[in-house]
TrEMBL record:
The lineage of its organism: Eukaryota, Sar, Stramenopiles, Ochrophyta, Bacillariophyta. The chain crosses the membrane at residues 377-398, 435-452, 464-484, 519-536, 548-574. PANTHER family: TRANSMEMBRANE PROTEIN. This is SnoaL-like domain-containing protein. SUPFAM superfamilies: NTF2-like. It comes from Stephanodiscus triporus.
Length: 625
C-alpha cells in the first residue's frame, strides 16, 4: 500500500502545482469511486465478508475455473462469455492506461495482447507459461487472488500479481460472473525501492515552505495514538480497516501494532521483504516522514474471511484522487486475533506503461521481417516532413502557398471526375501529375479488397478500415504502419484449418466492399484511365516529350509531386504482403494458384487488379462450399 506513493517526477510536479493553487482535480482513466479520506467509513467502502463456507465457495470456483481456462488456452471469446458479464470493466493497471469496457472489447484485448502483457493476457498461445494461484479470498460478491507465473514448474521472476474481482450473478440468479476486475503486477527488477521516497521528501519540504500541510510529526501522532487508546482487533476486517485508518493519521505505532511480531510483509516496490514488526514499522516511519500530510489511502473495496483479506485502494490528495495511484493488497490473518501475519502490497505501475510496446515488440521478435516496413516508414516520414535536400521543394512543415493550392486542385479533380465532365470549377493541373495522383489513390483503394484481414477473431493494433481512409490522404504514411503492426494469420502448409467466412468481416459495408468481385476491375479502370490521362489529356501541354519534360521540371521543385513517385515505388514493393494470408483465409494451399499469387506479388498495380478479380471467394455460412 504505502509504496504506491512513489510517484514519478511528472506526477510530483502536478501535485505541487495543484497544491499551490489550493485545489487538486484530475481527470484520468479508471478514476476510482469517490470515497471520503481519513479512514474507511463503512458507508463508503464495501466490505465483502464470507460469513459461511458457501458464501466464498462460488467466488473461489469462478477464480479457479477462470485460471484453468486461461492455462488451457481456451478461446478468448469463450473465456469472456463464460466468466464475465457483457458490460464488464477490466483494468490492467500494470500495462495499460485505459479501462477496457464491455465483453467485446475484453475479447479483443485478450486476442491482441496475448503473451505480451500482464493479468488475463499474460499467457501467449504457444508459450509454456502458466498462471499459478498462491491464495484466494472470496466473499459473496467479490474475490481477490494472489498469483504468479511459472514455466516448466519454475516460478518466473517479477510476475507476482494481485487481481480483485467484483462478482454478480446472472439476471436469472444462475452462474456467478465477473462484473469488474482490477489487475496489478509487480514492477520489474531492479525495484524502485527508496528512490521515490527521496523525491517525496523534497516535495513535502517544498509544501512546508509554501504553506502546505506537508508532513506531520510521526512522534506526535504516536503519542496521540497512545492517548486515544487502542483495542485489539477481533477480525480481519477490523485489522485491515484500522491499518489504513491509522496510516492516514500517520499513527505508525498503532498501524504496526496490527501486525504479528514475526510478520512478513512484501512491498513489491522493494527487492526484499520486511521481516518482523519492528522492521516493518521502520519502513512505515520512513514513508510517513516523506509523504505530504494531505495524502490519504482510500479503500475502494475489501473482501475478508477468517484467514485472509484482499483490498483494492487508491490515493487521494485533499480529497481528490491522484492519477496512477491505485493498487491491491493481499493479507494473511491470524485466525484467533485477526491481526495481519503476512501480506503483499502492489501499487499501480507509474508511466510509461509498456503493454502496447510489449505487444508490438513481440510481433517484431516473431517476424523480424516487420523491421523492413518499420524502418522504411521512419525514413519516409523524416524525408517527407522534416528533411531538406533529399526530396525537392520545402519540407512539409514549411510548405509554400503554391503547394497548398496544388493539393487543393488535385483533390477537386479526384478520380478525374471534374475535368472529364468539364465542370466549371475544375482547375487545370499538369496532366501527368493528375495521372500519378489518381493512379496512386486507385492503388490505395484496392487494399480494401483485404478488409477480411480485420475480424473479431483477428484484431489488429491499427484497424484496417481507418487506415484505408488515411491512405487516401497520406498513402504510405498509413500503409507501412499497418503492415508492421498487423496480426498475421496462422500458418498452414495445407491451407486453412479454421474456416474464415464472408460473414466474419466486421460491418456490412466492409463485407460488401471486401468481397465485391468488380472491385479490382473498377479500380483497375480508374488506374488505366489515369495513365492515359497523363499521356494524352490536356493537349495544351504538348506532345509526350514536351509534357514529360515539363513534368520533370515540376518535380524538381515540388515536394508533393516527388513524394507521389516515392509512394508508387513503396506500393509496388509491398502490395504482395497481403496475398499469402488472404489465400490462407480462402483455404488455398501454399503450392496452389502459383500464377495468381506471383502476379499479385510481382506485377505492380495490374497484378493486384488481376488477383482481386480472379481469387476464390470466401465461403458463406449456410451454403455448401
Amino acid at each position: 500500500m504505502l509504496s504506491n506513493t512513489l510517484l514519478p517526477p511528472p506526477i510530483l510536479l502536478l501535485l505541487l502545482t495543484t497544491t499551490i493553487d489550493g485545489a487538486t482535480a484530475f481527470a484520468f482513466p479508471n478514476s476510482p469511486r469517490q470515497c471520503r479520506p481519513g479512514g474507511i467509513p463503512s458507508a463508503m467502502t464495501t466490505t465483502r465478508t464470507a460469513t459461511s463456507r458457501d458464501d466464498g465457495e462460488a467466488g473461489r470456483l469462478v477464480v479457479e475455473s477462470l485460471v484453468a481456462s486461461l492455462n488451457s488456452r481456451t478461446d478468448p471469446e469463450v473465456v469472456v462469455g463464460s466468466f464475465f458479464t457483457r458490460d464488464v470493466e477490466y483494468t490492467d493497471a500494470g500495462s495499460f492506461y485505459a479501462r477496457i469496457a464491455g465483453g467485446g472489447a475484453l475479447t479483443r484485448h485478450l486476442r491482441l495482447h496475448a503473451g505480451s502483457s500482464s493479468g488475463l493476457s499474460s499467457l501467449g498461445p504457444h508459450d509454456a507459461r502458466t498462471i499459478v494461484i498462491d491464495d484466494v479470498v472470496a466473499g459473496p460478491t467479490a474475490a481477490c487472488v494472489l498469483y504468479h507465473l511459472e514455466e516448466q514448474d519454475a516460478a518466473l521472476p517479477d510476475t507476482t500479481s494481485i487481481a480483485f474481482y467484483e462478482l454478480t450473478r446472472d439476471d436469472d440468479g444462475g452462474d456467478m460472473r465477473i462484473a469488474r476486475a482490477f489487475d496489478v503486477s509487480e514492477p520489474p527488477s531492479p525495484k524502485p525501492g527508496d528512490a521515490g521516497l527521496r523525491l517525496l521528501r523534497y516535495a513535502s519540504r517544498f509544501l512546508d515552505v509554501i504553506g502546505g500541510k506537508g508532513t506531520r510529526a510521526v512522534g506526535d501522532l504516536e503519542e496521540r495514538g497512545k492517548e486515544e487508546g487502542t483495542t485489539e482487533p477481533r477480525s480481519g476486517d477490523d485489522s485491515v480497516s484500522k491499518y489504513f485508518d491509522a496510516w492516514n493519521r500517520r499513527d505508525v505505532a498503532y498501524a504496526s501494532s496490527l501486525f504479528a511480531d514475526d510478520c512478513i510483509m512484501r512491498d513489491l516496490q522493494y527487492d526484499e521483504p520486511f521481516v518482523g514488526r519492528e522492521r516493518f514499522k521502520g519502513h512505515l516511519t520512513r514513508v510517513a516522514e516523506c509523504l505530504p500530510g494531505t495524502f490519504k489511502f482510500v479503500v475502494d473495496d475489501l473482501v475478508v474471511d477468517d484467514r485472509r483479506a484482499g483490498a483494492v485502494w487508491h490515493v487521494e490528495n485533499d480529497g481528490s484522487p491522484l492519477p496512477f495511484t491505485r493498487g491491491c493488497s493481499f493479507y494473511s490473518l491470524d485466525v484467533e486475533t485477526g491481526i495481519i501475519r503476512s501480506g503483499f502490497e502492489i501499487p499501480e505501475r507509474a508511466p510509461p506503461k509498456t503493454g502496447l510496446l510489449r505487444t508490438l515488440a513481440s510481433k517484431f521478435l516473431a517476424e523480424p521481417i516487420r523491421l523492413v516496413p518499420a524502418s522504411l516508414w521512419v525514413a519516409y516520414m523524416y524525408v517527407l516532413f522534416v528533411s531538406d535536400g533529399i526530396l525537392p521543394g520545402a519540407n512539409a512543415l514549411a510548405l509554400e502557398q503554391r503547394t497548398w493550392e496544388e493539393v487543393r486542385d488535385l483533390s477537386i479533380n479526384f478520380f478525374l471526375v471534374s475535368p472529364a465532365l468539364h465542370l466549371p470549377f475544375s482547375p487545370v493541373v499538369h496532366p501527368m501529375l493528375e495521372g500519378v495522383f489518381n493512379l496512386l489513390l486507385a492503388w490505395a483503394a484496392m487494399f480494401a479488397g483485404f478488409l477480411s484481414d480485420e475480424r473479431d477473431d483477428k484484431p489488429n493494433l491499427l484497424p484496417l478500415g481507418p487506415m484505408l481512409v488515411g491512405m487516401q490522404f497520406l498513402t504510405s504514411g498509413f500503409l507501412l504502419p499497418y503492415l508492421f503492426t498487423r496480426t498475421s494469420e496462422r500458418n498452414s502448409e495445407e491451407g486453412a484449418t479454421s474456416v474464415v467466412y464472408r460473414e466474419d468481416i466486421a460491418g456490412d459495408l466492409q463485407r460488401e466492399v471486401a468481397e465485391w468481385r468488380p472491385l479490382g476491375l473498377f479500380l483497375g479502370g480508374v488506374g488505366t484511365s489515369s495513365i492515359l490521362w497523363g499521356l494524352f489529356a490536356r493537349p495544351e501541354f504538348g506532345e509526350f516529350g514536351d509534357r514529360y519534360a515539363s513534368f520533370l521540371d515540376l518535380l524538381s521543385i515540388d515536394r508533393v509531386g516527388s513524394s507521389f513517385i516515392v509512394d508508387l515505388a513503396i506500393f509496388a514493393a509491398f502490395q504482395g504482403w497481403f496475398v499469402d494470408d488472404d489465400l490462407w483465409r480462402r483455404r488455398v494451399a501454399s503450392d496452389e494458384l502459383a500464377f495468381l499469387r506471383n502476379a499479385a506479388k510481382l506485377i505492380p498495380f495490374f497484378g493486384l487488379v488481376t488477383y482481386l478479380t480472379l481469387r476464390p471467394p470466401l465461403p458463406t455460412r449456410g451454403k455448401k462450399d
